[in-house]
Design brief:
Layout (H helix, E strand, L loop, with lengths): L3 E5 L4 E8 L1 E10 L5 H5 L7 E5 L3 E2 L18 E3 L2 E2 L1 H9 L4 E3 L3 H11 L2 E7 L5 H9 L10 H5 L5 E3 L5 E6 L5 H8 L3 E6 L5 H7 L3 E4 L10 H10 L5 E4 L1 H9 L3 E18 L5 E14 L4 E6 L5 E6 L4 E4 L15 H9 L8
Parallel strand pairs: 3-4, 4-6, 5-7, 6-8, 11-12, 11-13, 13-14, 14-19
Antiparallel strand pairs: 1-2, 1-9, 2-8, 3-9, 10-12, 15-16, 15-17, 17-18, 18-19
Helix pairs in contact: 8-9
Length: 352
């Protein structure tokens, strides 16, 4: 007899084994990453989602805190074919429901065919299919999580100093810790700011670069961050990663849309349109830029042609849809941070 159930939006209820007990609901997504499960589970971009690992064995090299991208696990629940005892214990100690002994190949195929879907999970000795269905009935779509920024952003600003050449104002919409370290390693002092920081607060800080981080959910729900971009475009160099790219594009007349099942994994190929070079990238997003507005598309995803890089030399803007900080890898795109700081050495053309 199973002690865990997964109820899917399409009507199916799947049986599984409970590895960490509890009830959960969220948008069911999958990652193709075969390493980096610690980084994925602590990535704030997975807030309000249920993460399915397509790789069959998760936890085989243990759990080390130095690999974490934030202070806590962000998915509402975890689904896998097999979880090791160590990772199951970690999830249980953090009160994150986890289930395995489920056919993840079949589950991933369904997500690819029908798109990311709402789901409900019930796990534990008293779990029933009705419990999972009750969770599903209460589950919101990602666009309905209008205050998701408050769940993942810092509540108060702080600074990570490197005694460097530049000051970077990082708008934390759910930033991975490796974004900050990638900048400080290159000699930048990073001011980590709440997602709803005002233009007036940015002016008081007087940074050399405005940087929009990754994060979860619909970019349309990050209006304060968009307002900051609108205020400082043409005055400050502006950079963005993942959700940050989407926010910057919207601020400059662009549009965004929800993808069918998104890009999540460490093997997403990206082609640079200027050099034709292809790099492999880490990605985690369910929304994309559908119209770039005032920006130019400089890189595209090889699989589906969605924009992976946007820029405007005139406006001093450079963004990436993928995660160039490259945790857990690959490291093909680390030079993005060099390009960001190089912008700080040159005046923004339209500000003259």
């Amino acid at each position: 007899m199973s002690d865990a159930y997964l109820a899917l939006e399409g009507g199916r209820v799947l049986q599984a084994r409970a590895r960490a007990p509890g009830r959960a609901r969220g948008e069911l997504v999958f990652t193709t990453a075969y390493t980096g499960y610690e980084e994925s589970l602590t990535d704030p971009s997975y807030e309000e989602q249920v993460l399915t690992f397509s790789y069959p064995l998760i936890g085989n090299y243990g759990v080390r805190e130095e690999r974490f991208e934030s202070q806590r696990i962000h998915p509402n629940a975890v689904v896998a074919l097999e979880l090791t005892d160590e990772i199951a214990d970690w999830l249980g100690n953090e009160e994150i429901p986890a289930i395995d002994h489920i056919d993840t190949r079949d589950l991933v195929t369904e997500i690819r065919d029908t798109g990311a879907m709402r789901c409900g999970i019930a796990a534990g000795p008293d779990a029933t299919p009705e419990d999972a269905l009750a969770e599903l009935s209460e589950c919101k779509g990602m666009s309905e999580h209008t205050e998701i920024g408050a769940q993942v952003s810092v509540s108060e600003s702080y600074t990570v100093e490197s005694e460097g050449e530049f000051d970077v104002a990082l708008i934390d919409c759910g930033a991975k810790g490796s974004i900050t370290s990638s900048l400080t390693d290159r000699g930048a002092d990073v001011h980590v700011l709440p997602y709803d920081t005002t233009p007036e607060e940015i002016s008081e800080l007087d940074p050399d670069v405005l940087f929009l981080s990754n994060g979860p959910g619909d970019p349309a729900n990050f209006e304060a961050a968009q307002e900051v971009v609108e205020q400082f475009v043409g005055e400050l160099p502006i950079a963005g990663i993942c959700l940050g790219q989407q926010i910057v594009a919207r601020a400059l007349g662009g549009e965004t849309e929800k993808m069918t099942f998104g890009h999540r994994g460490v093997n997403q190929p990206v082609r640079d349109l200027r050099s034709s070079k292809v790099v492999m990238t880490t990605q985690n997003h369910g929304y994309t830029v559908s119209e770039p507005g005032e920006l130019s598309v400089t890189q595209i995803n090889v699989n589906d042609d969605t924009p992976e890089g946007l820029d405007s030399e005139e406006l001093g803007v450079i963004t990436r849809q993928y995660h160039p900080e490259a945790n857990p890898g690959p490291h093909d795109s680390l030079d993005f941070f060099d390009s960001v700081l190089e912008m700080a050495r040159k005046p923004v053309a339209s500000a003259d």
